[in-house]
Amino acid sequence: MDSLARSLAGTGLPHPLLVDAAREAIAAGDPGSAAGRAEARSRSLLRPVINATGVLLHTNLGRAPLGPAPEPPAIRGVNLELELSTGRRGSRQSHTAALLARAAHCEAALVVNNGAAAVLLVLATLARDRAVVVSRGELVEIGGGFRIPEVMATSGARLVEVGTTNRTRLPDYAAALAEDPALLLKVHQSNYRVVGFTESATVAELVALGPPVVVDIGSGLLDERTPWLPGGPPPWLAGEPAARQTLEAGAALVTFSGDKLLGGPQAGVLAGRAGLVAACARHPLARALRPGGLVLGALQETVLAYLRRDAGAIPFWRMATTEVGELRRRASAVGVGEPVDCSSVAGGGSLPGLEIPSAGVALAGDRTAALRAHDPPVIARVAGDRTVADLRSVDPADDPVLAKALSAAAAASG
Ligand SMILES: *Cc1c(COP(=O)(O)O)cnc(C)c1O
């Protein structure tokens, strides 16, 4: 078995994993399958892929792509919890969270592992054993099993539903004040829309009722004026909720995803009034939900880019704002398949139903399996009887790699 394992060394897997592959192949009575098993194991590891789906924030592909990895760092620590000016113990929340508060024009912010964690921490801290009022139209499930009623139950808060699926008015919330709610919670419907005969109360209206208003924005914008985009907000962004304006309307706190809303690493942010943020930071769950230095460092770079008004430094915004003419030019230059117009979507629960005009390359038939088998894997989508590689979600530097993968897939039988 050891010699069989050694013969698989070309896959680059560590020896114990090669032994596993050899053992499984022998147990299956098919020693010849060892190489294939080792190869499959190697391919199952986390690795970079080319996102040609046109879904800019694809949850299965890690949502926001981050910029190129920095040079391999020298062996150094970071001042994660050290105040360099005094030499005393500092807070890991003092760097990035302070920048986020600056960018959202609010008093304070706190960074946790993801958006779900931000909502959980706010509810557990501010509403344990108390009522939280939510519209029946906003009791949503977001992909991956994030269900508002279940998060609420886990936090120890008591859900008080008001209104109906399509219409919830201010008097519905006002009637629930009899329950002495700790919070009024508004939740961005994110990945679905109720259209037609609908009505909802605004944040400013809810604020006038008295209890703190918390808004789970999830995805959306940091600032609806998008000052980081030279041309202002593109038309497909209209109507997305924004952290800054929601807080200006009087919300006590907003919660959102660092990847969906900022185009940064996976993280969750809660931002707003300093006293409430500090209470959340002191809760024991905050320790369990805190991010590490890698995430905080990547998020810091993202927020600095927003503050510099440099959308070009944020891959999501580069992808989202590329002119369709430029994408058509790239599609022709790929030189394989047929250049086609198509539509991208923001993804990650943002902007359901809204499409961003795009261009890509089409191959006849379903070639997605061959594209996934390429190194690096290319993820494309099937549209009718064709496979379309949407160039909006592909880095231009990857176009030559994409061209190779498309030629290989076009030549593969199937
Ligand atoms: C996506 C989303 C969440 C969950 O955020 P994650 O970062 O995926 O945990 C919560 N609320 C809303 C409204 C969302 O869109």
Description:
With 414 residues, this protein is an alpha/beta fold. It folds into 2 domains: 50-66 and 317-412, Alpha-Beta Complex (Aspartate Aminotransferase, domain 1); 96-311, Type I PLP-dependent aspartate aminotransferase-like (Major domain) (Aspartate Aminotransferase, domain 2). It has 16 helices and 16 strands. The chain has helices spanning 2-6, 15-27, 34-43, 96-103, 115-127, 148-155, 170-175, 203-207, 243-248, 274-282, 284-289, 293-307, 315-321, 324-334, 368-373, 399-411; strands at 50-51, 55-57, 108-112, 131-135, 141-142, 146-147, 158-162, 183-187, 213-218, 253-257, 268-272, 338-347, 356-364, 378-379, 381-383, 386-390. A 7-stranded mixed beta sheet has the order 3-11-10-9-8-4-7, with helices on both faces. A 5-stranded mixed beta sheet has the order 2-12-13-16-15. It has a two-stranded parallel ribbon with strand order 1-14. The model has no long low-confidence stretch (mean pLDDT 93). Bound molecules: pyridoxal-5'-phosphate (PLP). Pyridoxal-5'-phosphate (PLP) binds at residues 114-116, 119, 142, 146, 187-188, 190, 216, 218-219, 257, 260, 268, 349.
